[in-house]
Amino acid sequence: MTEPNAEPVRPAPELAEDGPRFGGRPVHLRLLALAPALATEVMLRLLDRLPAYHALPPEQLRGEITRQVERGLRAFVEVLRTGVLPGEAELARIRESSARRADEGVPLESVVGAYHLGAQLCAARVLAEASPADLPDVALAQDRLLGYLRVVSCAVAAGYVQERQAALGDEQVSRQALLSRLLEGGDPRAAADRAGIRLPARYLVLSLAIGPHPDESRPGVNRSVVARRKLRRLRAELERRTDGVPLAALAADGGPVLLPDDSPDPAPDRAALTALLDRLARACGAELTAGTATAAPGEVADAVRLATEIRRVAEATGRGPGPHLLDDVLVDYQLSRPGPARDALAALLTPLAARPELLDTLRTFLTCGLDRRRTAATLQVHPNTVDYRLRRTADLTGLDAVRGPDLLTLRAALAAHEMRAQGLGERRARVC
What is the CATH number of domain 21-167? Predict the structure, then answer.
């Protein structure tokens, strides 16, 4: 009925005839007489109803598990007799046993279920002998049974969770060590071996920016709690949706994510990547923007820097949430590189520095595909206002956004202006 403990079972001392009685006979004595047969039945039902126990070695089932079942039966007999719940020594043995099952990979529901299955069989055997006249004693027996299950279930859960937390802590440390090694550059094989992780052919590298959850701006709401919940949901969904072991160093506003990729095609699958980010965004309730690159494990450090710059370029040029590859931002990325040409292009818009509404209108007009009505709707102004602002821009810069030769120059000038304002290319992008 209970979980295993390697300690041998000793004969129970002679028990006094106390506790509930059915038909005048003490229930605990009846249960004690049935103990050998019940132990066998519990083991059979355990394997039949809780398949996780089939994974344990046969000798362990015949030895350790069986002995602990017998110990559990005797412990319950004592509870029936005296009404005294198991003491700390017995509960410590149960916690230790549950921790072993956690280490062996037996699910918690199976471990708890083993105790309840044994209790159910015991109750069925002894209650079959009760008559209507025994109702007060039936209630007493049920009360002691529930009390026993309460303290035992708590001990099982405590031992199991403590072991899993320790194991997860060790696993997380080894994963973070591997991630650190990958981000630093160099050979990550030793760190992967320590983490028990097989290195993939390549990693799909994401530089992820996480937008705020709507609850983060609600008055009276603890923003740190909301941010932790957002990250917890994102990580859980990432684990569910990834083949292999994803590695991530995420804060509330984002961070690098490495997804193992053994597909034959080294190019990212844009459709699959878009679907993944959509699912992650729905899970965490926030917009996600990602710069994307691929790299062999030994080249991840450079890929993270590239993905970060791609994302920052995409954000600076208003491309919006979703995945962004280098091919998506080729011109803007190149314009983010420092040099005299970029500085000269950015300088073309210097006359607009004191007129931010003109710069904003130009940016929106280009983003809206030169559609003045869409631009007006986006800015919530009249189309005539858009026309006026574009004329003033042309007067101040000498470049007309509706004239073909000037259009390309204005696009490049705006991109260079945005990149320089963001500080892109001035220094190595931070990993974020």
Answer: 1.10.490
